[in-house]
Design brief:
Layout: E1 10-21, E2 24-36, E3 41-45, H1 52-60, E4 67-76, E5 79-82, E6 98-101, H2 105-108, H3 115-126, H4 131-144, H5 150-153, H6 163-175, E7 181-185, H7 193-208, E8 212-217, H8 220-226, E9 229-234, E10 237-243, H9 244-249, H10 254-261, H11 265-276
Parallel strand pairs: 3-8, 3-9, 6-7, 7-8
Antiparallel strand pairs: 1-2, 1-4, 4-5, 9-10
The structure holds adenosine-5'-diphosphate and magnesium ion.
């Protein structure tokens, strides 16, 4: 707790979110609690429809039609953004406090604006930079997320880039203000394995720089490559949480065991990694 006056960069405590279903309001996220420390990378794993996106969007204060906050609270760096004291969501932490990488770049990127200027926009929203300073900072950011020839790509439109490049642009915009918390909603699902690994490396270095990551996926293999801790969500409730090693080696819950057995190669890989200490070494790269 030395460098911060809070222990957790992100706290979600006993969060319940209702959704409209067949004319009724029913809970879809049920008393969910997740805490993530600065620099920690936490996986939220569960099947489709289990409430992962609703949870992340609540942290950003994005409730689409049919989704309603009921109870619980969310704090970013100790500051309540949703809860009894902030029932309508306090957006003051967006940008420098919390930002989000969506599954589909199409949701986050403006199709008719050059990508470089979209990153500049994200920067200038929070930091008072001149246009020229913002442009050169955007080019630095593009380089840091592995965009080659950033000077040329700066003036590309989203449709002129590959899916992997668009995803990198979105990540660059999301990390532009060095958020304390970065939320990722299955951001590599549509990408091939090589690009996925490169993108995971970017997230790992974002966490290494002190950002707390909450990384949503249905894929345990991704969690094993990126995260130190995880929560397993089932029908809106957390059924298990802990360190990667604890959950993978001694799962307590039936659903977790089922998830693990549906990715059979994982346990052996994990055991090998924990025995050699490789999973504590964030820079370690799995072979091709
Ligand atoms: N805006 C909404 N209106 C009605 N139902 C919703 C809404 N958003 C999500 N849901 C429902 O809530 C459940 C959880 O959704 P979601 O969080 O998107 O799941 P996941 O991201 O884990 O796949 C699903 O049954 C989904 O149909
Ligand atoms: Mg989802």
């Amino acid at each position: 707790m030395t460098a911060h006056d809070y222990e957790y960069a992100l706290e979600i405590v006993d969060l319940t979110i209702d959704v409209d279903k067949h004319g009724e309001r029913v809970p879809a996220v049920k008393g969910l609690t997740i805490r993530v420390r600065p620099g920690e990378s936490h996986g939220l794993v569960g099947e489709s429809g289990s409430g992962k996106s609703l949870t992340l969007r609540a942290v950003m204060g994005l409730f689409s039609k049919g989704a309603h906050y009921r109870s619980g609270l969310i704090r970013i760096c100790g500051h309540e953004v949703l809860g009894p004291d902030a029932p309508n969501y306090d957006s003051s932490m967006r940008g420098k406090g919390v930002s989000m990488v969506f599954q589909e770049p199409a949701v986050a990127l403006n199709p008719i604006m050059k990508v470089g200027w979209q990153i500049v926009d994200a920067l200038r929203e929070q930091e008072h930079l001149s246009r020229a300073a913002a442009r050169s900072r955007a080019i630095e950011l593009m380089t840091s997320v592995g965009i080659t020839n950033p000077e040329d790509r700066f003036d590309s439109y989203p449709f002129e880039l590959s899916g992997g490049m668009r995803q990198r642009v979105m990540i660059a915009a999301a990390i532009a203000c060095k958020p304390k918390v970065l939320l990722c909603d299955e951001p590599t699902t549509a990408l091939d394995v090589t690009i996925q690994r490169q993108i995971l490396d970017i997230f790992r270095s974002v966490a290494d720089s002190g950002t707390a990551l909450l990384y949503v996926t249905h894929d345990l293999a991704v969690v094993s490559q990126l995260c130190e801790t995880l929560s397993v969500i089932y029908h809106g409730s957390i059924v298990e949480d802990g360190t990667l090693r604890d959950v993978f080696d001694t799962p307590q819950d039936d659903y977790t065991r089922q998830l693990l057995s549906s990715t059979p190669y994982l346990k052996g890989a994990m055991r090998a990694a924990t025995n050699t200490g490789a999973i504590d070494d964030k820079t370690s790269e799995k072979g091709d």
